Amino acid sequence: MRNDLEVKEIFSIVSGLYSKAIAEIKLRPEQAFAYVQDEASPLCPSDNIALSVVLQTAIFKDGMSYGVELSRESPYAEDMLADLSKLYDECSIDDLIEIGLRDGELAEFIDLMNVIKKKYLSLA
Fold it and tell me: 62: burial class by Cβ within 10 Å (0-12, 13-18, 19+)?
């Protein structure tokens, strides 16, 4: 994403993509998840771990709210979960602070990461 793109903007972009996928294109939640991954992933520089974590957290958060279930039988889902797990393992609190997350916002984001880990990575 642009270097000046803020965390809130990332969440807003992802939310808009999900809304378009579900309401306009009429995709099922798992299809919308794949659509949002495809549309949003090119926006994020692969060398910025913290922005990648924010992007994936936003995608999984909205996916969770739409009821996305990722089957362990699907190679695509396995790849997405492995990528998420790797990102979460490699990202430090300092990385998140560096992109502007601080205090309450940082704590809320870490809580959200933990919810996503419990939902999607607990069986990984």
Answer: buried
Tens of pLDDT, residues 88-102: 999 999 999 999 999
pTM value is 0.91
110 falls within a domain: yes
C-beta separation of 20 from 47 below 8 A: no
Count of structural domains, the chain: 1
| Cα(55)–Cα(59) distance, integer angstroms | 6
Q: Report how far residue 34's alpha carbon sits from residue 108's, in angstroms, rounded to the nearest whole number.
A: 26
* Residue at 1 is within a domain: no
Q: For residue 118, give the 3-state DSSP assignment.
A: helix
